[in-house]
Structure formats: C-alpha cells, structure tokens
From TrEMBL:
It catalyses: GTP + ATP = 3',3'-cGAMP + 2 diphosphate. The keyword Transferase applies. This is Cyclic GMP-AMP synthase. Signal peptide: none annotated. It holds the Pfam family DncV-like_NTFase.
Length: 512
C-alpha cells in the first residue's frame, strides 16, 4: 500500500520514539553476562551443568518498547539452560538450585534477594537501572520434541533448540518425570528472523559497511526492520487501548506471530504496518471450530488456547484489530502530519505522540500543510469539527487529486478566481470548483463540504458527509453557493475499486 510521505515519516518517528535506547540493551547484556560468569565461577554449584544464559522474549526479538511511564521497569527475560537430565532431577530441584546461586549472586553484588515466581526467578536491579531480569531454569529437550512432532507428522524444522522448563503449577513439578512444560525461544527467534531475512541481512550489511566492520561485529539489537517497528507500534496501540482491561488485552506473542506471518519483506514501516493489519487474521486457523494460532516452532501448541476458556479474549483481539485498522486508516487519510498524529493520540498516548511530533517540524513537504501553517486559528478550526465525517474507504493511494481552480460569480458578473483561505466572499454567490487527478480510470468522485458557524447550525446546514460528483469535459467539477457566514471547507476524493485512491486536501472558503 502506498501512503503519503508525511505518514511514512510519522510512523518512522513513532517507532524511533518507542525504541529502547542502546544503553539499555548494553546494560541488560552486561547484567545477564555477569550472571552467566557467576554461574561458571569455580565455586558455583552449577558449574558442572555448563549453564548457558541467554536472552529471550521481546528483547531478543527486537520488539521491546519503552514503558508507558518512567516509573515502570523493563522486563528482560532470560533462560538459564543447564545440562541436566529429567530422569535425575525434578523441576522443583532444578529451580531451587538456580535460586540458591542467584541469591548468592545478589548478596555478593549488594542486591535484594531474587523473588520466586511461578516459572522463573526475578532479579531486581537498582531503580536507576530501570530493569529486572526474569531468569527461567531449563534443560535441553530437542530430541524429545523432535520425536513427538515426528510421531504426529508435524514440522520439526525448529525443534532442535527446544527446552524443558519449570512451572510450579505443573502436576509433575515435584516428580521425576519426562513430562515437563516446554518452550523454544531460540527456535522462535530463528523463525521470526527468517520472516524478515532479506531486509534484516541487507540492513545489517549496510551498518557494517558504514562502520567499516564485519557483519558479525554488528549486534543484532542495532538492526531495525519494518517488521520489528510495526510490531512495536501495534503493541503500544494495544497497551493503551486496554489500560482498564488488562486481563483481556491480546498477548504479545499472538500479535508478533500473526504480524510476522503477514509481513512480506516490505521495505518501509508504513507498507509493513498496513499490510500486516490487512492480512494478519488470515493466519488464524479454525480447527473443529476452535481458533488456532500455531507456535511456529511447535505446531501442536496453540498460542490462542485460552480463547476457548475465555471467549472475551478472542472478542478483545478482533475488537483491537478493528480499532487499529480504523485508527491507522484515518491517520493515512490525514491531510497533515499534525492532524494524523492528533488522531492517533487516544490509542498511542499523548507522551508518545508528543515525542514523535518533536522529531521534525510540522508541515514537511505537504503543500496543504504549508498553506495552513501561515493561516490564522480560524482556518485551522475548520479542518476537523466534530461533524466532519471520516472517509469510509480504506486508503490505497494510486495518484493525486488537486482542486486546481475555484471561481465565484454573482448577479450576472463574470466569474472571478479565488484561492484557498483567501479573501472573504459575499453571501448568495455561486461557486465552481474544478479538480484534476492522475488516477487511472475508471473511478468515482466524491466531495465533502464542511460548514461552520451559527447560521449553518441553526438551519441544520453544517453538512460534513460525502456527495458523489460528476466529471465534466474530463474535469471533476462541483458547484456550491455561499449561504452562511464563516469559514468552511470543500475536499475532493477519488475512489477506485472501493478504495480511497487520492484526496485533495481541504480548500478553505471564507464567507462574510
């Protein structure tokens, strides 16, 4: 999908404002490597188990986002993979062994004791660090996972890096058993990266060339792709929409998985975001009437397994998807960057919108924005009164349309040209607007007239809807009259195949 340049720039600025600062990545990396070094020290009770500590979750995927407020911490999810056998140790014993070492680490570094959670240990850092480490005990389980998938005739492409993990709510938590909960964060990252491989590798190579370094010297967290940025924006939209209903909000793994499936190596954030929103629900299967979002590394696992038990969560996902589509479609149809940002504020948050707004001056290359930048407050009010309806068509830019001429005539005098937001016109005059477009035929033309002021309101003449227009001698022509005092607007829309192919931007008409 093609979108105006100012919308692409807006989305780039939103993504940049959501991005975790490199210093946070580096601090988190130092911290988890420090934990790994501790577990490998000579006195470590786990040294013989060759502990491998690595990052997982959104930090690994490059989709972590800044907290909504400065009071919140970053969650850094780790795995501590130990060379142990499920035939000799229980989940409870493995978790307790890691807990003892983490408590010793905390004491040696002047930190508070780690807190035990259902699956992992949480190691809090000082407030200034603004993050904590959630460390999950695990043992390798690739061979067993491969066998189970083969027996069911399912793909084993990512199974070799599967792990068995601890969960104190699991029925075998305190028993020696081969049946443990499972996960595969390494496999999921490899799958996720495969979905953006072309763009990821090209951008990593570009960074390496700019730094005159080898590709391997460029940390993965420094590579940003449109898929990662789109997921970040969608996650923040989800977070703000469900502030008061956190139990129902769509979980990140569902959004990330569907987005990665829908991504098709689009080179820009805008193209990626709109493609994802358009196609992501296509990757929800229905097996015997049950919604199924398969874990790419374990097709037998359903990321949406809670939807059947909690149907309100399934409803919430589709509610969010519909709202996200509407919000970003409205943004794409925004005449100016500032108008588009203001429309997104409700579901992205004022703080994020203000951060994005500050990244570049208003107006940019948009011609209408430059006109309005010099206009008075009265003209700006016309842009978006409450009765101005949103375009009902999904945007799919296929060209341009411009109101290239406007004339006013009264009492038999010859028509005179006038410009947008120019001199005030007399009442009871005839207006003619002519627009031109380069959108290929066939198409339909619609005009939107938005009136303001008490005179129009008293006689129910505010309007704000869409009227189908006509094409005269190859021109898109509209005739109106100057009936009400105030500042009003008219805009031309070109619709092709049911999609909004082009819009002119508002032409301001002042009437005395």
């Amino acid at each position: 999908m093609r979108v105006p340049k100012h919308i692409e720039e807006l989305l780039e600025d939103l993504a940049e404002s959501l991005q975790i600062p490199p210093s946070r990545y580096e601090a988190a990396e130092r911290s988890y490597k420090s934990v790994g070094d501790w577990l490998h020290r000579e006195a470590s009770s786990l040294r013989q188990a060759d502990p491998q500590v690595y990052i997982q979750g959104s930090f690994r995927l490059g989709t972590a986002i800044r907290p909504v407020s400065d009071a919140e911490d970053y969650d850094v999810d780790l795995v501590c993979e130990l060379s142990a056998s499920k035939a000799r140790v229980t989940q409870a014993q493995l978790k307790a062994a890691l807990g003892r070492e983490l408590k010793a680490y905390a004491a040696a570094h002047g930190m508070d004791d780690p807190e035990e959670g259902r699956r992992c240990w949480t190691l809090p850092y000082a407030d200034s660090a603004q993050f904590h480490l959630d460390t999950l005990p695990a043992v390798p389980d690739g061979a067993r996972k491969r066998l189970l998938l083969e027996q069911r005739g399912l793909s084993t492409e990512w199974s070799d890096t599967a792990i068995a993990i601890t969960d104190r709510d699991h029925p075998n938590y305190r028993l020696v058993s081969d049946d443990w909960p499972h996960s595969n964060p390494k496999g999921y990252w490899e799958w996720f990266r495969s979905r953006m491989k072309v763009v990821f590798e090209a951008r990593r190579l570009k960074l390496a060339m700019e730094a005159r370094a080898s590709v391997e010297d460029i940390p993965e967290y420094k590579v940003r792709t449109p898929l990662q940025s789109a997921v970040q924006i969608l996650k923040r939209h989800r977070d703000m929409m469900y502030v008061e209903r956190s139990d129902e909000k769509p979980i990140s793994i569902i959004i990330t998985t569907l987005a990665a499936h829908a991504y098709n190596q689009e080179p820009t954030i805008a193209e990626a975001l709109y493609s994802i929103l358009d196609r992501m629900e296509e990757y929800i299967e229905y097996r015997q009437g049950v919604a199924w979002i398969a874990n790419p590394t374990d097709p037998a696992e359903n990321f949406a397994d809670k939807w059947q038990e909690h149907p309100e969560r399934q409803a919430a996902f589709f509610e969010w998807l519909e709202e996200a589509r509407a919000d970003f479609a409205a943004a794409a149809a925004g005449v100016t960057r500032d108008q588009a940002l203001s429309g997104l504020e409700t579901h992205l948050g004022k703080r994020l919108v203000e951060a994005a707004r500050a990244k570049r001056p208003a107006g940019g290359n948009n011609a209408l924005a430059r006109v309005l930048a010099g206009a008075g407050a009265r003209a700006r009010i016309v842009l978006n009164p409450a009765h101005r309806q949103r375009p009902p068509w999904d945007p799919a830019t296929q060209g341009d349309v411009e109101i290239e001429r406007a004339t006013v005539a009264r009492n038999g005098f010859r028509p005179e040209d006038f410009g947008s937001d120019g001199r005030s016109l007399p009442k009871h005059a005839s207006l003619t607007f002519q627009a031109d477009t380069n959108v290929p035929r066939p198409y339909k033309v619609y005009w939107q007239v938005v009136n303001t002021g008490l005179e129009a309101e008293r006689v129910n003449g505010l309007r704000g809807g869409f009227d189908e227009g006509v094409i005269t001698a190859g021109k898109l022509t509209r005739r109106e009259s100057t009936l009400y005092r105030g500042s009003h607007s008219i805009e031309c829309f070109v619709v092709k195949d049911g999609l909004l192919a082009a819009r002119s931007g508002q032409f301001i008409v002042n009437i005395q």
